[in-house]
Amino acid sequence: MNWCAQTGGARLARMTELTLTGIAAKIYAPIAALPILSPHGHCDPAWFAKDSAFPDPAALIITPDHYVFRMLYSQGVPLEAMGIGQPAGTTDPRAVFQLFADHWHLFLGTPSRLWIATMLREGFGISEPLTPETAMTIYDQIDAALATPAFRPRALFERMNIALLATTDAATDPLPHHQALKGSGWAGRVIPTFRPDTVLDPGDARFVAELGRLEEVSDTDAASYPGYLAALRSRRAQFRALGATATDHAIEHLDTAPCSTARAAELYGKARAGKIDDAEAAEFHGHMLCEMAVMSCEDGMVMQLHAGSRRNTNAQVFDSFGRDMGADMPVATDWVRGLEGLLGRCGNDPNFTLIAFTLDETTYARELAPMAGHWPCLRIGPPWWFHDSVAGIARYFDKVVETAGYQNLAGFNDDTRAFMSIPARHDVWRRCVAVHLAGQIARGYFGMGDARDLARQLSHDLARSAYKLHLP
Amino acid sequence: MNWCAQTGGARLARMTELTLTGIAAKIYAPIAALPILSPHGHCDPAWFAKDSAFPDPAALIITPDHYVFRMLYSQGVPLEAMGIGQPAGTTDPRAVFQLFADHWHLFLGTPSRLWIATMLREGFGISEPLTPETAMTIYDQIDAALATPAFRPRALFERMNIALLATTDAATDPLPHHQALKGSGWAGRVIPTFRPDTVLDPGDARFVAELGRLEEVSDTDAASYPGYLAALRSRRAQFRALGATATDHAIEHLDTAPCSTARAAELYGKARAGKIDDAEAAEFHGHMLCEMAVMSCEDGMVMQLHAGSRRNTNAQVFDSFGRDMGADMPVATDWVRGLEGLLGRCGNDPNFTLIAFTLDETTYARELAPMAGHWPCLRIGPPWWFHDSVAGIARYFDKVVETAGYQNLAGFNDDTRAFMSIPARHDVWRRCVAVHLAGQIARGYFGMGDARDLARQLSHDLARSAYKLHLP
Amino acid sequence: MNWCAQTGGARLARMTELTLTGIAAKIYAPIAALPILSPHGHCDPAWFAKDSAFPDPAALIITPDHYVFRMLYSQGVPLEAMGIGQPAGTTDPRAVFQLFADHWHLFLGTPSRLWIATMLREGFGISEPLTPETAMTIYDQIDAALATPAFRPRALFERMNIALLATTDAATDPLPHHQALKGSGWAGRVIPTFRPDTVLDPGDARFVAELGRLEEVSDTDAASYPGYLAALRSRRAQFRALGATATDHAIEHLDTAPCSTARAAELYGKARAGKIDDAEAAEFHGHMLCEMAVMSCEDGMVMQLHAGSRRNTNAQVFDSFGRDMGADMPVATDWVRGLEGLLGRCGNDPNFTLIAFTLDETTYARELAPMAGHWPCLRIGPPWWFHDSVAGIARYFDKVVETAGYQNLAGFNDDTRAFMSIPARHDVWRRCVAVHLAGQIARGYFGMGDARDLARQLSHDLARSAYKLHLP
After folding, report:
1. What ipTM was predicted for this assembly?
2. How would CATH label the architecture of C53-149?
3. What DSSP string runs through B330-342?
């Protein structure tokens, strides 16, 4: 039985290759079928609001997933050949899928291969392996399934046993799909997340235009710095009204030294006029992260911080294809000094929760675990992006737990826009949790009773509490 | 039988949960009961000089241990509630102990839990697990034990099989307790360590006042830079006369570029007048570490360097509670460039030993192991602070040994002020040594004979030789 | 049977201590005897051109190997006592070998011990362990073997089953030995590698003198910047004519921001006149790495980049003994920002291959794997120098594969000047490959069929394709 079988019962993806034995299997069994909480990710709310069929297998699996197309690009496959950045209808999805199958061996050893293989097997009931030869048969099987009601987004959401899914939405997004969902009567819980990067960072080329959209959608005059803050507060409230419990922020170089209100107003004026230099833009951005923390103390929204990704490092690809084309790269991050301003202002506030995500694994043991083991506000987010993998999860637990314990972790989130991979991603996490906890028993840290309790927390409860999700 | 049983025989703590099997067990057996050398730590010499009973269970286990109270603070427990920074007698130790027991689950997966559980079981013979319900019963058991002669510091020292324990003492400390110990006739070896941070770093707010104390206690006029150096030399000699074999130094950002004597004298003048800026203070501090190395070449004292801890990062906690409140955080450290000045001056001197401790594990394989595999003076200290844990020790061996070998390591030290946890800490190390060496046999690096020899060295001999301890 | 046995059949070194069992043994068996590709290393081409006997055991094993003598130096053995930097004939090689044997225990747990022990056992058929007592007997055995035809370089090359070996040669080297080899009729493939560091980096004290040699050997006037580029192009062509497929570059601090041609010409003028400051020298060096990449796009030579080694950190040793004395130390490296200039210019060119070697393992997962999983040109080199070890290789796979896959790796190279250790080094790699792949099967990433295929690629095929080796 797989989770695409329309038997009514929710069924989690299996990753049968990662066979758990002994203690690990015993820890895993009771958490395997827990409902999925997905408090951070990049699914499109329109999917659930409109509940339309996904167009074709390539559009489901390949073109939206930068994990996938970056690997083909690294081996010389042009992005154009995968239909990336091409006008709709100009690329044959069958040809794209065949190209993907021809390069499927590139993914050996990567979590993408685990996720996609699991999705094909458990989601679509396809038992034969993907090869260049089987590609078109498998394409047809997926294509046929997508045309059925059982593969509409809402039906999948339910069958995949998702209890809650948060999308990530620009601060300037009027959230029409979330509005529609609220009035739809559908029981699935899909909530927005407030992501204001483009209206906080004057170094972003879209900043000035986005300010205009912010004013419009918030119906607030943001000509002055106080007006700007009011517009942001207004948008946060609107997000909360649609169920949002969290904000999300990305920054390459972390520095959150706050500046005075007068200085902030001055920088805002320059930024709004498009006359701010790079250093000033960074100063303003860091200051505004502090302001976001202050607003979180006020309104209780959980603040997520994704630091250390250098965006768009391939200028040629950026010029031709735009953002999110697989050329974002991690850089070293200094969490201790970088968060000093923000934590100095809000770190001891009992109403404040900050979830930190890093791409610099050296900071797990050196910085984030010691910080989370002290600051009341701080929770360590799960392994992010390139590190959401079997070995990456093992390294995470190895390096954070002994100093931070488990209660300072934020559980798991899948961070994906590949909707149908969600069960596989949570299942990899849960299996890795079981392996880790079995190791802790062997290391003498605790026994089976504690391990089972922690397994449930890591798979479900910690995400719920860290994100302040109020679930039935 | 446990080590609190008054059977006369020294007995090391057991950490029964970390069951060693096969080869590891065979390697562990002969080292389990070796005498403990504790050449670096923070016990109070007054305990042994006065040999008074410890006041109560909270004062023994909770309030002096920042590992413990920082974790409760991270989950929202105010420091005040644990009696931290409160006037003596105003906080009920029973209430503090109950609070600790209520949050005991936070420590799952942390070495603190291993150490404390072992201490309760082996030190106090308490077999029932600590829970909110058992807290008061266990409190009473500990309290009753502490009132008996067998739990006086000297009796514990002997029963815990400690062959030598070094304390850490300010350069300005007149060392009355060490003086008293010397004349006491007690056979226990407790020696001081020369820690001059506050009189070397003009960036420390206590610098000027401490200079005054330095002059007084050394009976030396330190108005001039040569006088200052003479005062430091005098104090080093006084420490040595009381058994000290080592100095200890902490610095956040490592930079040891030496300056000329004229420049040093100029900076000293400014520092003494309280008119030195941050950059100059750092320059002077780095220079003075070189001077300490030069003095070590002269007098043979082993130089310990603890680099990369950013102190007091929580201003609100610092303002209310002072130092050592769990808000010190590790930062990235550059050992190669940072030690260039000091090693250029003293690194090839056969009379010089430098033991380096890092909180930046990335430097194990990248910097410290290659450096220790070249410089005659350099020994790598054991995993420090947050990294003194089962996984932390495994990472340490994994990353240092293949490049530095074993003879460039400094063995183990417990670095603790939690006196009764010392046997448990050494036992965790010894068990982890056994696990590591069993792994090396499996990896093909050597056989059982070499493993047994190395186990003994790592548990005992290397600490003795690195710290130049002259033991019977 | 060992590979020194003159039975005619090629036989790879065994490292019998690292016994592989179960799945790992099954993966290892078919790759154990694959021919050795050694596309990067530091053997002397004169050995093969002249085919003279190696002079004595100390000159074979100790004096050319900085891994070896640095360890003895770290424990107080003077370099002079090992004959380092001493006039030929003034040091008794027997005394040097005895000294080495007396300190053989220092190498416990290091790959040097594995390599040397394997070489003694498999290369020389010596079964008794090296000890202070057996040293002279073993010396005699080696010495006697070296005098026989079977231990001449060409015979060893063939018996060690080396299919190709690349040396590393200065850009100014007239390559007489490679010329001689080409006309020798010997079937062994020994090719040069173009290493132009001293003529690209004006910060190198040898720069101006080396420019003179460059002009001479290329017969090109390099007075002007265009002339200089022409001279470099000419030398690259000469290297290619002798079989070279690759260039090699070392840099401590990676920064490849290109400058304009006018600026480059200005800096070249200053450098040639010996009037360039440090910042300008670094700017020029970084720019010239870009130019090397551009030339690689033109001529197809594979570009190797070894970044992050700080050279000659022990001034006293450097002054007395010169370069390569074991005092080169790794430093943290920023690959993402450091390569931005070079990749922006050449990163998407299908004719360009860049192989990156790091001494900063933190960049495996954080930078190199994400970069290699995107940039078409980039391949990750195998663990380098201190990290070419059992645990180092395990960390490498653990951290690169999940993001980069296997096809973005460059296979293995031994990077050694210790000729007779080559089989042992490749064998350690192959065994570690087998252990890694067995782990991947357990982790569920793939099955035995894929593992066997990947084992062959990692041991042989990936090196061939990454280095564009055209082999029969």
Report:
1. 0.96
2. Orthogonal Bundle (1.10)
3. E----HHHHTHHH
